[in-house]
């Protein structure tokens, strides 16, 4: 399966689309359906099924007894991938992303020491979402300090909500 690695995906398990490949997994669904919002959609809630006791492997990392949310495909996303994985991979590891080589490295936090050339960016977590403090320069040169979600699954560099901060305005 091709899964988007998304730090903005707050659940421990997987989100999968209802595709032929997923149907072939013959997952066992519980009696409870859920409503999914966000997830790259248009803001409407989408009904989804829950499958428990799902095992998944990403390289040498194995997730066991995970929950999968299985939902209808989002028309502009599902052609390039089968689903999304996030917090379930990030919660127990130091993750090094090497864009130049196109690889992820997972390290045991107890044994990891950052390279001297590394830059530490402090994160805080709220509801399994990673946040970082950034300074944004507005069009008038005014600098605004913001707490933003670090979302590697987003297709844009930054998204700012002007309604939440009076120092920001739409240019």
Measure the end-to-end span: 40 Å
Spans of at least 5 consecutive residues with low confidence: none
The general outline is globular
- What's the β-strand tally? 11
How many strands, what sense, and barrel or not for the largest sheet? Answer: 6 strands, mixed
Order of helices and strands: EEHEEEEHEEEEE
Q: Work out the helix count.
A: 2
State mean pLDDT (0 to 100 scale). Answer: 83
The helix content is under 10%
Question: From the alpha-carbon coordinates, what is the Rg to the nearest angstrom?
Answer: 18 Å
Q: In which order are the strands of the major sheet placed?
A: 1-6-2-5-4-3
**How much of the residues is beta strand, in percent?**
35-45%
Structural class label: mainly beta
What structural keywords apply?
three-stranded antiparallel sheet, globular, single chain, 171 residues, mainly beta, 2 helices
Structure summarized in a few sentences:
With 171 residues, the protein is mainly beta. 5% of the residues lie in helices and 42% in strands.
């Amino acid at each position: 399966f091709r899964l988007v690695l998304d730090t903005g995906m707050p659940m421990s398990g997987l989100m999968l689309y209802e595709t032929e490949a997923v149907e072939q997994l013959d997952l066992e669904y519980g009696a409870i359906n859920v409503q999914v919002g966000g997830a790259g959609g248009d803001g409407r809630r989408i009904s989804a099924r829950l499958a428990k006791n799902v095992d998944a492997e990403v390289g040498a990392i194995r997730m066991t007894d995970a929950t999968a949310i299985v939902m209808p495909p989002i028309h502009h996303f599902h052609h390039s991938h089968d689903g999304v994985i996030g917090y379930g991979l990030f919660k127990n590891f130091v993750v090094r992303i090497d864009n130049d080589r196109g690889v992820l490295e997972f390290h045991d936090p107890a044994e990891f020491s950052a390279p001297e050339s590394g830059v530490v960016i402090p994160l805080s977590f709220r509801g399994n979402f990673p946040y970082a403090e950034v300074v944004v320069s507005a069009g008038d040169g005014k600098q605004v300090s913001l707490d933003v979600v670090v979302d590697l699954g987003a297709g844009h560099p930054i998204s700012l909500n002007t309604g939440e901060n009076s120092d920001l305005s739409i240019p």
